[in-house]
Design goal:
about 45% strand, binds 2-acetamido-2-deoxy-beta-D-glucopyranose, single chain, 9 strands, Allene_oxi_cyc_Dirigent, AOC barrel-like, alpha+beta, 2 helices, signal, apoplast
Length: about 190
């Protein structure tokens, strides 16, 4: 019986092999990263960076673009939609190495607790990942600790990435209305 099963498995494999081979021939991956992808050479990276969130004043990097009729009376500012273009730095200090920008849309989407639906692209224009980007999408309950959001993809070094990010408010200055957010991102990537 065992022998039969093994024979059957080998047969199935033999039948399946030529098809896989033909597919590989058709693809003929030229680019190194694509060859590595075909060979399953996926790696995991952990990144840490800081987001400079300037929430008011002429140099604000967060701007409201729409609101609902109930936004001004809602305890959470429900329905407020803003576009952000925040500086990404290597360290919490706003004058530390500039790594890129966090660009996208944030929508207050919870009637009960302060939580936003985010659609943000981390675009790196310096450092190791210059030219690459990571896309983050999900629910962010902004007053909680260790907020987890999914990394849904990326470009450049982060092509076909997936993973998650953990974010915390590193500091918030209520007078300047200026927040510094810490992001730790765990992503898979192909070298
Ligand atoms: C805004 O940015 C400009 C140019 O960097 C700077 O000169 C100015 O002092 C800034 N204004 C405030 C209020 O921070
Ligand atoms: C929003 O408020 C304005 C002014 O009070 C009102 O005219 C409008 O009908 C409201 N819109 C909706 C969708 O409730
Ligand atoms: C990032 O890459 C671009 C394009 O290759 C290059 O022009 C630029 O100088 C790089 N920036 C840094 C800070 O290395």
């Amino acid at each position: 019986m065992e022998n039969l099963v093994i024979t059957w498995m080998l047969l199935t494999l033999a039948l399946a092999m030529p098809r896989a081979h033909v597919t590989a021939q058709i693809l003929e991956p030229q680019e190194a990263w694509f060859r590595n992808l075909c060979q399953g050479k996926e790696k995991v990276a952990q990144l840490r960076f800081y987001i400079q969130d300037a929430l008011s004043g002429p140099n604000s990097t967060v701007w409201e673009v729409a609101r609902s009729n109930i936004t001004s009376t809602s305890p959470t500012s429900f329905g407020q939609v803003s576009v952000i273009d925040d500086l990404i730095t290597a360290e919490p200090n706003p004058n530390s190495m500039k790594l890129g920008r966090a660009q996208g849309l944030i929508t207050v989407a919870d009637l009960q607790v302060p939580a936003i639906a985010m659609n943000i692209n981390f675009y790196f224009n310096a450092g190791e990942y210059n030219g690459s980007s990571l896309c983050i999408l999900g629910r962010n309950q902004i007053l909680s600790e260790n907020r987890e959001l999914p990394v849904v993809g990326g470009t450049g070094a982060f092509r076909m990435s997936r993973g998650y990010s953990i974010s915390n408010t590193y500091s918030y200055d209520p007078v300047a209305n200026y927040g510094i957010l810490e992001y730790t991102v765990y992503v898979t990537y192909v070298e």
